[in-house]
Write a structure and sequence with these properties.
alpha+beta; 4 helices
Length: about 110
């Protein structure tokens, strides 16, 4: 999968980065994808922080060109995941109400 190493690295350091850089945007690329695998199998990452996604993207293109690299906002939880969690909670709550009150129906 493209950017798998970058996403794993981001997730492993997310909470550390949230402490100091919450809201910033990361532009990053695995250094070994630039120069090939190292003997130890370890990867190094080139990382920069920016105030906006546009800045992070532009800097990535200037640095690496039109190749895969990660641009991601440093947040405790991704916004999509937070929205999905909120939706699931609403659905659970609605299901609970329908099982408790036979007069309430989700289907109309």
């Amino acid at each position: 999968m493209a950017l798998e190493a970058e996403l794993k690295y981001f997730e492993a350091r997310r909470m550390e980065w949230v402490t100091f850089h919450e809201g910033k945007w990361v532009s990053m690329r695995a250094a070994t994808s630039l120069v090939g695998s190292t003997d130890s199998g370890r990867r190094e990452f080139v990382i920069s922080l920016f105030d906006s996604s546009d800045e992070a993207y532009r800097a990535g293109v200037e640095r690496w060109g039109i190749v895969p690299f990660l641009v991601k906002q440093v947040l405790k939880e991704d916004r999509v995941e937070a929205a999905l969690r909120a939706h699931r909670e609403k659905v659970r709550s609605a299901k609970w109400r329908t099982t408790r009150d036979p007069g309430v129906s989700l289907l109309r």
